[in-house]
Sequence to fold (524 residues):
Amino acid sequence: MASISEITKRIALGCIPLAALIILTPKPQASAQFDIFTAVLGTVTGMGDTIKQFNTDTAEIQNLQTQILYPVQEFHNIQSNATSVVNSYRGWMNSVFGLNLASAQTTSGQALERQMLSGFTNTNPSAQMGSLFTNAYGSLPNPSQATQTHVQAIDAGDASAQAAMQMSVMADASAASTVQLANSLESQALTTSPGSAPQLEAQALASELNSMAIEHNLLATQLRAEATRLGYRGAEFKQGATSSGNAIQGIFGGAK
Amino acid sequence: MTKFFTKVAANAAVKRAGIVTVGCIGFGLLTVSPAKGQFDTAAIMGFLTTMNATMQSAMAVPIQLMQQVNSDMSTFTKTTLYPLQQIQAAQGIATQGLHQAESLQGIMNISTASAKLPSPQQLEAAMLSKDPNQGANISALYQQTYGALPTAQTAPSTVTLAVDMGDAVAMASIKKAIVLDALADSEMTVSQQLMNELQTTAPGNVPMISAQAEAWILQAHAYTQSGTAQLLRAQSAELGYTGATMKLHSTITGNAAGGMFALPVAGH
Fold:
C-alpha cells in the first residue's frame, strides 16, 4: 500500500495537467468576436441600403424639379413666346401711344394745345399756362363788367381748368415714364430666371402702387373740376336770385 | 474520516503539491491571453476584405451617385433657377424704378395754383393742400367764392334746394379730392419704400414684399372706387341742376322745351 507521501505526489502531478487544461481551454469570447464581425458587415450593408434609398429619393426630387416644376424646355418656350409678344406689340403700341393729337386751328388755340400736349421736359408746365390760357379763353372781367361773385367764380373756374390742364401734362409724363419702366420689366423678363421672376413681379407691383397713386391725384383733379362746374351752376342760380329776387332770371340767363 | 484528511493536509508533500498547483493556475491565468488566440491574421484579413468589398458596393457607389445628383441639382439651382447675374439684374430694375418714382413724385408735387383773386386763391390753396384737416375750412371758403344760399325771399324753395344740393356735392368733392391727394402721397412713399427694399432683397424673400404691395394695391383700388363714387355724385348733381332748370322753365312756360334750350346758358 502506497504511503501518504506517495499519494500526495501523485495528486500533485495530476493537478499540473489539470491546470494546463484550464489554461488552454478556449474562452467563450472567441465566438463573440466573430459575431461582431458579422454585425459590422450587417451594419455596413444596412447603411448601404439606406444610402441607396436616400439616393433614390434625391433623384426623384431632382426629377420633380427639372421635369415637373421647372422644365427647361418650357422655360425656353416661355421666353420665346415673350420675345414674340414684344416683337409683335411693343413697337406698334408705342407708335399708337405716340400719335399726334393736336387739332387746334387758331394761333392761340394751337399755342395752348402745344403746351397741354408737350409732355414734361424738366420745366414747370405751369410757367406759360396762365398767359396761354388767357390768350385762348380771355381774361377775367373787371368789376364794372360783372359782379364780384361772378368774377370770383370765373377765377376759380379758370384756375381749376388750368390746374387740370397742367395735371394732364404731368399725367402724360407719368404715363410715358410708366410705359418705359413696364418695357424695361418686360425686357428683363425675357432673360430672367424662374427664381428671379418674382423679383420683377414685386417691382411691377410696387410700380403699380405708384401708378395708382398718380391715378388718385388725377381723380382728385377731376373731382375739383366737377366741384368747380357745380360751383359755376350754383353761382348762376345765386346771382339770378340776387338780381331778380326769384332766381329764375339767373337760371334762364340773368347771370350772363 | 476526519482524522484521515487532517493527516493528509498536514503532510508536507501534499502542501507542496497544492502550492505548485495553485502557482500553475495563477501563472497560467496571468500569462496566457485567451483572446490572443482569436486574432488569426488570415481571418482578420478575410474579414477586412469582405468588409471593404461590401462598403465599396453598398456605400461608395451609391454615395458617388448621390454626389452626382446633388451636384446636378446644385448646378441647376445656381445656373437655371437662381443665376446670380439675373438676381442682380432684377435688383437693378428696382433701382431704375425707384429713381423714376422719385422723379414722378417731384413732378406731381409741382404747384398748379393759378387763381388771382383772394377768395378763389384761399379756396384753391385749401383744395390743393393735400391736408385732410383743411376739410373743415372748405365750406366757408366755398361760400366766400361762390356765394351763400339764396334766402326764401330771393328764390323759390326748389331753387334753394337744388343749389344746396349742388353746393354740398361740390364741397364733398373738394374734400374727397384733398383726401385722395393725401392718400396718393402715402402710396407714393410706400411704393418707393418697397422699391428701395427690392434693391437688396433676396429672391426667396421677395414674395413677402409682393404680398405687401398687393395689399396696398387692393387698398388703392378701394380708394379709387370711393373717389369714383364721389365723381358719380358730382355728375348726378349736374344732372339734377339740369333737371331743375327744365322743371322751373316748364313751370313758367307750360312746357320744358324752353328749359332745354336754356341749358347752354346755365352750363356756361
